[in-house]
Specification:
16% strand; 9 helices; single chain; 219 residues; 8-stranded parallel beta sheet
């Protein structure tokens, strides 16, 4: 099965999950996660008309996306991996959305760099719903105060919240927690769900799902 076939299968599954949840399929954005795949592997998916992609590393994305963006107008690129502060300038220049705002230093650096470049990036705060020490993200209990700081002190508009549940736990409670935090803090968008659990995420209100392996195959 080709990447295009798998893309269309995933879209069908999202639509079915949405209908099962009483939602409109068009309300869920599919972010095709192209990390570790080269331009030749991504191009057929672009030719099929898909335009929203996710990458984990700034440097890797710089190696393939500027040319692809020139070739295929309308591409929307999301950074879904950790952002190092020394890569902020490059990230703001290349990406349309950054989903991993996970600490005060990054929020401040982004605010400064966006002003410098005169560019507004769509921002998501990453929440560590499982409180895993090895994972990035704001603790759920700190979410409200962090969002208040981003908004009031730095003047940032935070569009959404993002999470990656522990791989060995039922993702449902984590998705429910993220939705609750979003509702409490006036946040409209929820980025949650990956190849193994995106249908569950749709049921819990995801507005975007990040799917890589189920489209591009094993890395």
């Amino acid at each position: 099965m080709s990447a295009v076939d798998r893309l269309n299968e995933v879209k069908g599954r999202i639509a079915e999950a949405a209908r099962d949840a009483g939602r409109a399929p068009g309300d869920i954005e599919l972010i095709a996660v192209s990390k570790t795949f080269d331009a030749d592997a991504i191009r057929p998916v672009l030719e099929e008309g898909h335009r929203v992609f996710g990458e984990n590393r700034v440097q890797e994305a710089q190696g393939k996306w500027p040319d692809l963006k020139d070739e295929f107008p309308g591409v929307e690129l999301h950074l879904i991996g950790p952002l190092q502060s020394n890569k902020t300038k490059e990230a703001v220049a290349l990406f349309d959305a950054i989903q991993t705002v996970d600490r005060e230093k990054i929020a401040r650096t982004l605010a400064t760099e966006m002003k410098k470049q005169g560019k507004t990036i769509r921002l998501y705060v990453e929440v560590n719903t499982g409180m895993e020490p090895q994972k990035a993200g704001i603790a759920p209990d700190d979410c409200a105060s962090f969002l208040a700081m981003c908004r009031a002190e730095l003047g940032l508009t935070i569009e959404g919240l993002m999470c990656i549940p522990p791989f060995d736990e039922n993702p449902g409670p984590h998705f429910a927690l993220l939705r609750k935090l979003a509702e409490e803090n006036g946040i409209a968008k929820l980025s949650m769900g990956m190849s193994g659990d995106f249908e569950t995420a749709v049921a819990f209100g995801a507005t975007s799902v990040r799917v890589g392996t189920a489209i591009f195959g094993a890395r």
